Amino acid sequence: MKVILLIEDHDLIRENTAELLELAGYEVLTAANGKLGVEQALATRPDLVICDIMMPVLDGYGVLHIFNQNAELRGIPFIFLTAKTERQDLRKGMELGADDYLTKPFDSNELLNAVAGRLARFQQLQPPPAPEYEATPAGLDAFLHDAQATGQLDSLESLAADRRTHELPRKQIIYAEGDEASRLYFVESGRVKTTKTTAAGKELITGLYGPGDFFGYQPLLEHTAHHDSALTLEDTVLRYIPAADFSQLLSRNPEVGRQFVRLLAGRVREQEELLLDMAYNSLRKRVADTLLRLHEQQTAAQPTAEPLIQLSREDMAALIGTAPESLSRILSELRQDGSIELTNRDIRVLHPEKLRRANW
């Protein structure tokens, strides 16, 4: 049901107009002045606004000006409603961006036709929603299939050839810091870590990637060399997407490109949160948060299996940003309080709720 916001200071006109619109099948929100109307729109975004011009507190011109300046309200169809018929008032309203203009008194057909016409026109101007793609092998196939179907690539032969799977052994270097960025990587199975090395030779893990994850995209978007290194943590299967084809997908099909970027934005947000944790949280809290995050990732990847965190102490320390000796001390404390179970290489989270309370 379409939502219409009616802003009118005359009580009888407001009530009668709202009743007419409700009988026509619209949900109607009402406000007695412009200020209340803006507050109502911010609380519940309407599909169309009918607004009187001459009102106390804030007139119709002020309301439309606020709508135009507010990103949440900009673009909503706007119909002015007034008893003033002077040409200069009509012109001012249209110059501000009003979609239509009704003068009082008006008949019911005139109002309903204006509303239906504005809503239909607005619907026609909206771009079709971009398809949703999951970050899985099937999602990648659907993404590239849509690009092929819409003719967004000049040639698909090289893309098809480079999309074959590449099997890499454990501890295989995929690319090193400073290497030219030539392709986008997709993890079909296995795990990959990306790292940066400080001037003192200390390694910091900047990302962990498992099945369904993309990596290596940032230098392609920035047109730079790789600013980190990538290494397999176990036997891994990757798919390669050439940089030229990736660029064509983004530049020639903006809607598909934006969908693809949405898949990657979550990874950037996660890295930002990790940096905040490293800057402001205690080591014990950082270890607990990292264990929880890895536990949740393993649970999501293998919902039917018992989740085990299979990461060396050196890699986990590099992920958290601490020394392996400090990590081992915290892990021993967490084992003693029953939060986790330790084996030679693996970690099992026994009580996630205890880790979530680890605000030490």
SSE topology sketch:
Blueprint: E1 3-7, H1 11-23, E2 27-31, H2 34-43, E3 48-52, H3 60-69, E4 78-82, H4 87-95, E5 100-103, H5 108-125, H6 137-149, H7 157-162, E6 165-168, E7 173-175, E8 183-189, E9 192-197, E10 203-209, E11 214-215, H8 218-222, E12 229-232, E13 236-242, H9 243-252, H10 254-280, H11 283-301, E14 309-310, H12 313-320, H13 324-336, E15 340-342, E16 346-349, H14 352-356
Parallel strand pairs: 1-2, 1-3, 3-4, 4-5
Antiparallel strand pairs: 6-13, 7-12, 8-11, 8-13, 9-10, 9-12, 14-16, 15-16
Helix pairs in contact: 2-3, 9-10, 11-13, 12-13
Describe the protein's architecture and organization.
It is elongated, with a radius of gyration of 29 Å. Helix 11 (283-301) crosses helix 13 (324-336). The two termini are 50 Å apart. It has helices spanning 11-23, 34-43, 60-69, 87-95, 108-125, 137-149, 157-162, 218-222, 243-252, 254-280, 283-301, 313-320, 324-336, 352-356; strands at 3-7, 27-31, 48-52, 78-82, 100-103, 165-168, 173-175, 183-189, 192-197, 203-209, 214-215, 229-232, 236-242, 309-310, 340-342, 346-349. The strands form 4 sheets. The chain has a 5-stranded parallel β-sheet, sandwiched between helices. A 4-stranded antiparallel β-sheet has the order 6-13-8-11. It has a 4-stranded antiparallel β-sheet with strand order 7-12-9-10. With 360 residues, it is of the alpha/beta class. The chain contains 14 helices and 16 strands.
